[in-house]
Structures are given as C-alpha cells and as structure tokens.
Design goal:
This protein has 353 residues and is α/β, with parallel strands linked by helices. Strands 3-2-1-4-5-6 form a 6-stranded parallel beta sheet, with helices on both faces. Helix 13 links the parallel strand 10 and strand 11. The longest helix has 17 residues. The radius of gyration is 21 Å and the shape is globular.
C-alpha cells in the first residue's frame, strides 16, 4: 500500500485502466472504480474502458473522463489503419499525463497501456500477465469473489470501498429510445416484463433450449411479457427457442444497445439467464436475478445483489475441465425446469427480496 501521504498529495492526474473485453468483469469492477473516483475527487480522473461499454460508464463518470479503447476497430481493420487507430489512442493516453496508472485488469494490453502512459507510478496485481511493468505490485487474496480483487488493488493506494455493489442507471436518452422500440414491438409497460438471456460467451455456460422454452411458456401463461435479450450472436439460440414456443414472447435479440438494455432492466420485474455479462449488468441495475451456472465458480462470479438466486444442476466437478467436459456439462444441463420454476415463484409470486 502507498503510505507516503506527500506522494499522494503530489498526484494531480489519475489513470485507471479497465479495458476488459468481458462486460461482466467491468461491471464487477465498478465498486473499485467508484472508490478510486471518490478518493481522488479533487484530482483529474481518467478511466480507460472498451469502447463497446461506453453506455455503462458515461452516465456515471462523464464522457470527458473516459478514454475509449478501440478494441473492435483494432481487430477488424487493415494493418495500416490499425496502426493509425492505435497511435491515435496512444496519443490520448499520453495526453492524460497521469502521475499514477492503476491497472485493475492486469492483462497484456492493460499493463502495456499503464507503461506507455508515461505514469511514474504504476500499480497492478502481482499475478498480472506483465507484472514487471508495474513498480507497485499488489498481492491479492484468494478464494474470494472477483469484486475483492479489484477492491484490493484500489485499496493499495488508499481508496477503500465500504460496499461490494454499485447501482447503475440508464440515461434519459436511452430510456426514450427504448420506449420507441417497445412500442414498435408491441411491448407495454402496463404488464410485468421478464427478461430472459439464453446465451453466454461460452457454449458450456448455456442452459438447454428446452428448459428456456418451458420457462417462457409457463411465464407467458401466467400473464408476464417474456422478452428475450442478447446480442446478435445469441439470435440462433433465441430463434431455436422461439420455434418451440406455444405462447407469445418477444425477441429483442440484437436490437438493443447496452444503454437501451439497461433502460429495459430498469422497468423489468426479473432477469433469468446464464452466467454472463448481462447477468452482472442486470444485478447492477437492481433487478432480481436468477443466475444459471455451469462450470463457472459461483462463489467468485455470482451476481452482486441480495436479490439473486444462483442455480445449477449437479455440482461442479472438483476437477472441472471446462470446455473439454467428459460429462456433457451435466452441471448446467441437468438443471430442471421445476427447479427454475420454484426460484421464479420465490422471487415473483412470493415477493421475496
């Protein structure tokens, strides 16, 4: 921990790095980010995130404090254009003139950003992929939820967090654009909305289409508006489920920006989905969550809300092999419709929070 008070007083510009490509990691890091922003509230604060997640942080941090890492552009363009884009971003990074760079992520790209920023003090976890690029390395606790990893890095410079959760809000702009989309799709705010996200970044984290079909039909028969959400890569899964449905549902897969998804979560009654980024986003919006876990370690990645029920089928194997599972991912695929139905009843019908 930095214990030199005079050193901290000399700090004028702060750079926090969290350009994580996974939405869930970014959302889980929010308590640490906001603790750093509050600790350095009299200083000039900059936060690096992936451009894809601008909608999440802009209402909380302000556009003038965000440096947007152009990951998608660097992946999709020609080599020459990639170089131009990279050096433009590097110029922004250097222009921040940070006195300290705090790398919450600790991957190859973020640790290199910390180094290239020119910050004389660079802080990151000792288990980072390039720890030699920091001059203050933080030893993290093990066996705790991921949120504590980020909090411990922030605490190394004195930014303590008294909470492990943070409530996000959608912007008025995205609330307005969502209203137009709901109107066009025939979704009303007069009836309760249940959001279902059947996708996940990995196939082995996904519950069965049959299970989602049964839950959707049951909820629709009870008078709920079932709205399927997800990115364009989830459309095949959503379309497969939709082909089996006997009752009406709504497919907003690939239609919503992240900001509009946040606005939808604000007016919904429940989120049901796999271990994924939208699960963490829903929790941060204050929405009750039923999280379906497979190989993931729920003690480390469970949604950060008291309004959450975590479910799985059989227990996760002690020596889980993840994508190379020899048991056909029974930890999630054996999760029954009855178990999920009981969890929904506990939250929705019994009004337990």
């Amino acid at each position: 921990m930095v214990e030199n008070t005079s050193l901290i007083e000399k700090i004028k510009n702060i750079l926090v790095l969290m350009p994580e490509k996974h939405m869930g990691n970014l959302v889980v890091s929010l308590p640490a980010i906001m603790a750093l922003k509050e600790f350095f509230k009299e200083k000039i604060f900059f936060l690096v995130i992936d451009r894809a997640y601008k909608d999440i942080l802009e209402p909380q941090i302000g556009s003038e404090n965000l440096l947007l890492f152009p990951r998608k552009q660097l992946r999709e363009n020609s080599f020459a254009k990639k170089m131009r884009i990279f050096f433009q971003f590097l110029h922004q990074l250097r222009s921040a003139s940070p006195d300290v760079a705090i790398d919450l992520e600790g991957r190859h790209a973020s640790s290199m950003m910390a180094f290239l920023s020119g910050a004389p003090l660079r802080i990151g976890r000792s288990t980072a992929e390039r720890p030699y690029l920091y001059n203050l390395k933080v030893d993290l606790s093990t066996g705790k939820h991921k949120v504590y990893s980020y909090i411990e890095i922030a605490a190394a410079i004195g930014a303590q967090s008294e909470t492990v959760s943070f409530r996000l809000q959608a912007s008025d702009t995205h609330r307005t654009s969502l209203k137009s989309i709901l109107l066009n799709e025939g979704i009303t705010t007069d009836k309760p909305i249940i959001c279902i996200h059947p996708g996940a970044g990995k196939i082995y984290k996904q519950w069965t289409s049959e299970g989602f079909t049964k839950v959707s039909d049951w909820l629709s028969s009870k008078g709920f508006q079932v709205v399927f959400v997800g990115s364009s890569i989830d459309l095949n899964k959503i379309n497969e489920i939709s082909s089996f449905l006997k009752h009406q549902s709504y497919n907003l897969g690939g239609m919503l920006s992240i900001g509009e998804l946040m606005a939808l979560f604000e007016i919904s009654s429940l989120y049901l989905g796999n271990d994924s980024g939208p699960m963490h986003l829903a929790a941060a919006m204050g929405l009750p969550v039923i999280a379906l876990f497979g190989p993931g370690v729920d003690s480390r990645w469970r949604p950060l809300t008291e309004k959450a029920i975590v479910l799985r089928g059989t227990g996760r194997c002690q020596k889980c092999k993840g994508k190379d599972c020899q048991y056909d991912f029974k930890c999630i695929r054996t999760l029954s419709f009855t178990t999920v139905k009981k969890a929904v009843e506990k939250i929705i019908f019994l009004k337990i929070e």
